[in-house]
Each structure stands twice: as structure tokens, then as C-alpha cells.
Amino acid sequence: MHSDELDFDLPPELIAQLPPRNRSDSRLLHYSRADGSISHRRFGELPRLLRAGDLLVCNDTKVLPARFMLRKPTGGRIEALFLRHEHPLRWLVQLRALESYRGSFVFEADESLSAVWRRDLSGGVHEIELNSNQSAAELLARVGRMPLPPYIRRDRAADPRDDLDRERYQTVYARSAGSVAAPTAGLHFTPELLAELDAAGIQRTSVTLQVGLGTFKPVTADDLADHVMHAESYEISEEAAVALNLARAENRRVIAVGTTSARVLESHPPDEPWRPVRADTSIFIYPPYTWWHIGGLITNFHLPRSTLIALVAAFVGLDRQRRIYAEAIAQRYRFFSYGDAMLAE
């Protein structure tokens, strides 16, 4: 399969810059794989679209406010993105416009916090050493901003919408901190909607996939088979394994909330019982693909030539994915992270 088969033309005004006033007010395109029909709904109608006994699998990762500004002694500013740390004092970060500088920095949001450049890694990633042994989560809560994708436009240093982004670029069920991008299909759920799903007999469980920087990486290879997929860490808990085994035994549908949950589930061997696991996955799902565990998918509308749209095409079929996206554009759906959603079943 060629990457240009995942292209489409999107009017720029359909790229959502803000979330809807209420999470579950997002529009929901409902696609039936059985007959190819499309209907236009609201996300709040989800309890009436799913079946009693369906098992929703959510990604409970929590997005870190991982973006921050550093300042050199000369006053020059460097935009940074926290990726991970292998030691409390030493962070791996992406540094933008660093050029040849290899010295010390202060954090613009808190000048008592400083760092020293230590080494250059591949792909614009650097190691810096901090003067504080507080946890990354504690420090970033104080000095960081949410790591919104580049198509959501915000002022570089600070923006009046920062507080809104801290709340809304996060699912209401987030609990396992470590991601630098949100599992955006989950952004549409509210506590009230979750309660409605419970009342309708729709079951829920959670897995964790820590979304990395590679989620923004476009497919640049002409042949999708040549694309090198990034690895991300994931966890399936004992509770989730029990829920998944019971759903399988009772022949109930598993509905993945988002491509991240789908990747976790499809990383599991098809012929083995579910069990607790912590591991990494670099699974890249694109057509043609045999699905072993997923009976439905809730997802947002994704970027052209992305690994995410490739997964959607694998689930519904490439021609049908093109028709769905053409219909969404014609109906003026809002696209990408803060945009609307689709349910394919």
C-alpha cells in the first residue's frame, strides 16, 4: 500500500482550534460496516448506539504539561518538550532552535529552576541535567504547558487559553501520567455520559498506552511497509485482563476507544488468554489487516498520511475510509485532536 492513498484535501477552517463548550456535544459520525450506512449524531447519543454488554476499552493515560520555555544566559529562548527521564535529575527533551549552544539554561516560568546541557541524541533529542530532584510530574505541573499538536495554534510563550487546554486536552478518566499527546477519542466523555453508559449495561475497562512524540510523525515512506513505527510502552492490568477474558467467553463485542487502545489490544496474541502485562508495542496497523480483538472503534478524524488514518482504513476498508472522510468534510465536521468523532462498528 502506498502512503499517498491516505491523502485527502482538508479545508483549513475545519481544523478545530478549540474544544466544544461541552465535551459530549461533539458531533459523531456513525458508520455501520454491515451495510455501509452513515448517520450523523451527537456524541452524547453513544449509550443508544452501543449494545448492552459491549465492553468499551479506554486508554487511561494522563498527558503531562510537557512543553516549557528555557532561556540562555544571553536571553535567547529555547522551546522544549519533555519526553521522558532515565534518572530523576536527567531529562530527555526535544529542543527547538538550539543550534550550536551547549551550555546552561533557566526555566522561564521559574528562574530558580535551571538545567545544563549534557548530550546530543538523535532526532533533535537532548539530555539535560536539572538542579532539582523533584519528580518530572511535579516540576512540569509548575512550569509546563500542554503539548498541543502544531496544528492547534497558540502563542509561543503563553496563551490565555492555557488553563482551558490543561483541562480539556485531558480525558476525565486520565490517571497514569506519562503521555505527551492525548488519546483524543476519549476527550468527548463526561462523568455524566459514563454514568449513562453504565446504566445502559455497557461495560468499561481501561488499558494504558503512554503516547509518545512519534504519534505526530507522518508516514514519509512511499510504501507503508517501509515505515518505521515508533515504540510506546503499555500496560494491561489484572482487572482489564479479567474483563477482556469474560467478554471473549461471552462473545460480547470489544469497542476500542481510540487508536491507542486498539493498538494495545491488537498487540496481544490472537490465540492466548488475556493476562496482566507491561511491554512496548510498535505495531503498525494498515490495510490489509486481520483484526483479532476489536469489534468496534471510536476515534477522531486524523491527519492525512498518518499512522492513525491507516489504522482506520484497516478497520473499515480503504475505499470506505475515503467515503467517510469525504462525507465528514462535506458535512463540515471538525477535524483532529479537538474535533469531532466517529463510531465504526
Poorly predicted regions are none
- Outline, from the CA principal axes? globular
CATH fold-level topology of the largest domain: QueA-like
**Backbone structural class:** alpha/beta
Give Rg in angstroms: 21 Å
Strand composition percent? 25-35%
Distance between the amino and carboxyl termini: 24 Å
Fraction of residues in H or I helices: 10-25%
Oligomer: single chain
The chain-level mean pLDDT equals 95
The number of domains: 2
| CATH class wording of the largest domain | Alpha Beta
CATH architecture of the largest domain: 3-Layer(aba) Sandwich
How do the strands of the widest beta sheet line up side by side? 2-1-17-16-14-3-12-13-15
Task: Name the CATH homologous superfamily of the largest domain.
Answer: QueA-like
Q: Biggest sheet: strands, sense, closure?
A: 9 strands, mixed
What is the total tally of β strands? 17
Number of helices: 8
H/E series, N to C?
A: EEHEEEEEEEEHHEHEEHEHEEHHE
